[in-house]
């Protein structure tokens, strides 16, 4: 049986990844339920892997970043976002790579803002692009023996609906979850798979 650690399992995408993989195959981790972890805190990440032990793969669907107009961004906005979505995921790989069995993978989350910035997206564009660059760099490291890749979700239909926008412009979370499953199971190391309908 597979043993997959899903970090962010209590969130929209993470919960759909757990459903797609089968709850019996997953160890759910989040800030508020399951195995507790705060990915902005390296000590919390290290403790998670101490508790969980060996796994077949890791999916990380969490990591927050601020979306605000350029002239409203503060030092704290940048510090928070870099510690969460960027360094949080980098540290998932740093601490998690030894926990993944040979042939396994660690799949991270970036986002289409890396390629398609818009007003207010300075931080999100920066961290998403950095996550993608990190995935490519990790794949080039000979001492990393597992695949490291990412999924780049576009707008998720349920998120658009929650924002009061037309969900028809998004992709359902269940479909995005399938992109994570494909990357986890067979995505090449260093690859970033879009989940948006192009």
Verbal overview:
It is built from six helices and seven strands, in the order βαββαβαβαβααβ. With 198 residues, it is an alpha/beta fold. The protein has one domain (4-194): 3-Layer(aba) Sandwich (Rossmann fold). Strands 3-2-1-4-5-6-7 form a seven-stranded parallel beta sheet, sandwiched between helices. α4 links the parallel β5 (100-109) and β6 (147-152). The model has no long low-confidence stretch (mean pLDDT 91).
Main-sheet strand order equals 3-2-1-4-5-6-7
In the CATH hierarchy, the architecture is 3-Layer(aba) Sandwich
Low-confidence stretches: none
| Count of all domains | 1
Distance between the termini: 34 Å
Provide the CATH top-level class: Alpha Beta
What's the helical proportion of residues? 40-55%
Please trace the helix and strand order, writing H or E for each element: EHEEHEHEHEHHE
- The percent range for strand residues is 15-25%
Number of helices: 6
Protein structure class: alpha/beta
How many beta-strand segments? 7
What's the CATH topology label?
Rossmann fold
């Amino acid at each position: 049986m597979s043993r997959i650690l899903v970090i962010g399992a209590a969130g929209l995408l993470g919960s759909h990844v757990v459903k797609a993989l089968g709850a019996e195959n997953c160890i759910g981790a989040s800030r508020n339920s399951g195995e507790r972890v705060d990915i902005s805190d390296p000590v919390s990440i290290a403790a998670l892997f101490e508790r969980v032990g060996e796994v077949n793969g890791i999916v990380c669907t969490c990591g927050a970043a601020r979306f605000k107009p350029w002239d409203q961004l503060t030092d704290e906005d940048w510090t928070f976002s870099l510690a969460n979505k960027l360094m949080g995921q980098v540290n998932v790989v740093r601490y998690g790579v030894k926990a993944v069995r040979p042939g396994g993978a660690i799949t991270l989350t970036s986002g289409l803002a890396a390629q398609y910035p818009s007003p207010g997206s300075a931080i999100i564009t920066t961290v998403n692009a950095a996550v993608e660059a990190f995935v490519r760099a990790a794949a080039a490291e000979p001492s990393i023996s597992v695949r490291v890749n990412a999924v780049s979700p576009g707008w998720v239909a349920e998120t658009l609906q929650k924002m009061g926008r037309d969900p028809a412009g998004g992709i359902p979370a269940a479909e995005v979850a399938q992109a994570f499953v494909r990357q986890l199971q067979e995505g090449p190391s260093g690859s970033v798979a879009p989940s948006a309908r192009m």
